[in-house]
From TrEMBL:
This is Xylose operon regulatory protein. Keywords: DNA-binding, Transcription, Transcription regulation. PANTHER family: LACI-RELATED TRANSCRIPTIONAL REPRESSOR (PTHR30146), XYLOSE OPERON REGULATORY PROTEIN (PTHR30146:SF24). InterPro entries: Homeodomain-like_sf, HTH_AraC, HTH_AraC-typ_CS, LacI/GalR-like_sensor, Peripla_BP_I, Tscrpt_reg_AraC-type_HTH, XylR_PBP1. The keyword Transcription applies. It comes from Adhaeretor mobilis. Pfam families: HTH_18, PBP1_XylR, Peripla_BP_3. Residues 376-395 are annotated as: Disordered. One of its GO terms (molecular function) is DNA-binding transcription factor activity. The gene is xylR_2. Residues 283-381 form the HTH araC/xylS-type domain. Transmembrane segments: none annotated.
Amino acid sequence: MSNRRSVALLIETSNAYARGLMDGIIAYQREHELWSIYVGEQDRGAKPPIWLKNWKGDGIIARIETEAIASVIRRTKLPVVDVSAARKIKSIPWVETDDREISRLAVEHLVDRGFETLAFCGEPNFSWSRWREQRFQDFAREAGCECHVFSGKSRGDEDYSWTKERKRLASWVEKLPKPAGLMACYDFTGQQVLDVCRELDIAIPEQLAVVAVDNDVRLCRLCTPPLSSVIPDTHRTGYEAAQLLDQMMRGKKVRDEAMLIPPLGIAERQSSDVYAIDDEDIVRALRYIRENACTGITVADVLNAVPLSRRMLEHRFQKLVRRTPHAEIVRIRMVRACRLLRETTLSLSEITNRAGFASPDYFSVAFKKYMGMTPRSYREKGKSSKPSRSHLSED
């Protein structure tokens, strides 16, 4: 026990993202049995805890979101890993979600449903919201979409009033061209958008499809309708932060640059479960493919589900979706295969079966052509320095 290090966690437990970070840190600690962990009461943006000033520990993992906490942490002169996007101390390593990939997933999700008008609703007082907003606009532009942005006022402003802010948001949402696909910077903002839409009698998802970020399952399911959300890999983020701190406490020099962890995917719920295509037959074909792609269907099966000739299906599908029906079947299968490779320890044969491919050999060739690497390389890249964990529930 004399070799056991003492590590402090300055991470709030009031939201799903922070709790996910702690789960990853705990997983690393249990795997290596290295530390005694001290967790005090901590709210987001709160003043530095009194105990930190004279704390005699070995290292800290913290969400450093204020100058006050940054100042106290500097004075400890202890090894520290930051897990906040605020980046208050530039000289220490930090581990954060990859906001570029989060925005890319959201744009892809909305564009795949046929939306040509996109919108972003953010909170400019948060770095991660500003980064997501910028990347969202970049990807929307690349997709040839019209893009609208709502930047909420900072809650720290002296004249901030949620009553006034809600009116601003409602006015902006009401004026958006419809139909549109909207990304909210995180789940709480997504809930606010849905509440405003309900008051304005805007149909969700038919007039406005909404996807947020963090996948706080309870909050997303409380929304009306249930809220789609990008799933950040908080478990891996926490685990990587713990591993970095362990290296630092052992005297190893680590880089102070960002380690950005990509998201796991999107939990699709009713708020974005729509195709913004004015063609009932193609919408029916898309739904059929999404629900059955991994059962081994072919384009012939899709033709049995819609009253179209193969030539007409191919023509209208290519025009509206910008892919062939076969390419869409393959895309859905690859999304499933990637998720299984990342999140499970299933054999290649079992993944082949669950993703709807004919054989492991065919799957390996198709995967390498589609992803630019073998399934084995993809799994190793995605799980490097990351413990095995139970599957994520699908909603």
